[in-house]
Amino acid sequence: MRELPSVDTALLSETLRRFLAEELRASGLAGYVVGLSGGVDSAVAAAVAAAAVGAENVLALALPGPTSSAESLRDARAVAAALGLKVEVVDLAGPAEALAGTLGARGDRVRFGNVMARLRMVALFDRARTVPALVLGTSNKSEILLGYSTLFGDAAASVQPLGDVWKTHVFALGRLLGVPEAVVGKPPTADLWPGQTDAGELGFDYPAVDPVLYWHHEGGLGREALLAAGFPQALVDAALAAYRRNRFKWRPTVVARVSASCINVDRILPRNPER
User: Looking at per-residue confidence, does 1 or 80 come out higher?
Assistant: First the structure.
């Protein structure tokens, strides 16, 4: 069975550090704002940002909702302490309950989870306005390809340092960057309802699915080739179904092309001005 290729974790960390330093320089803003969930993705993103621009220029927000676990807030505080970050707690329980009640979404845990995910980004972008700062994204490549995200929720950010990094490699980055082992080693969860885990919703865990995604998305192997390579049929079918079903999330805002120079469709435009 084929494996996910290894990565030079130190080089990856340095590449991401330089990326975030350059994005902040080009923006002309003062720093980054990041939502610390208590999970490994936000911890790693925050750690890279702190290394890139200094911990004093990274503001962490913990954003608990009515169904968030106490352990998530505890772990978010532990990450902030380990990285030397200032952390603010913004309790979204009241706003989430009020908005979900108005929309009639409280009884549907997926709809309520989406409300929570989007409210968190409202809080982050609003707080970023006061700094002023860029909002640091925390989505990784595995989640993006599987569509395990909320459009204009956790998928929304000013920059996504981990968007081209497999979840398996995020774990390795966490250990390299000194993220507490209690955070790196716990089951990934969006913490949107009690007992929620990524693996429980997806039906597989990241170390198992990352090689399938890699060899399909980057290696060009189709279903039969993946099966011939030794991957379990149930895993292949579930991964490919999520991959195909959620491709619309990869580019949240699709622009209708009516000219010869449609932004982000026909041209790759330089993001950053010359120094």
Answer: 80
